[in-house]
Design goal:
This protein is of the alpha+beta class. The protein is built from one helix and five strands; from the N terminus they run αβββββ.
Length: 77
């Protein structure tokens, strides 16, 4: 019983330290057509890769890098 409690306490301590994500502020926003509806998407980063501009887009793109042609317009400079 004691071993079980020690293991559980260790697991709780390890899980408390795992996956600490720092809060990141959006640098601009964009408009995308998702599911036939116009959505405003927060953009957290901009990069050029293979002569293509990509944006690190928040929800609904799950903070992935997506191409600029995904957006109908952005406020990024």
């Amino acid at each position: 019983m004691i071993k079980l409690l020690i293991c559980m306490a260790g697991a709780v301590m390890l899980s408390g330290c795992a996956g600490v994500i720092e809060k990141q502020e959006p640098i601009c926003s964009g408009t995308a057509i998702v599911g036939g509806q116009e959505n405003t998407v927060q953009i957290y980063g901009v990069r050029k890769q293979n002569n293509q501009t990509q944006y690190r887009a928040g929800d609904p793109f799950n903070w992935r890098w997506v191409g600029a042609n995904t957006f109908t317009g952005t406020t990024c400079k």
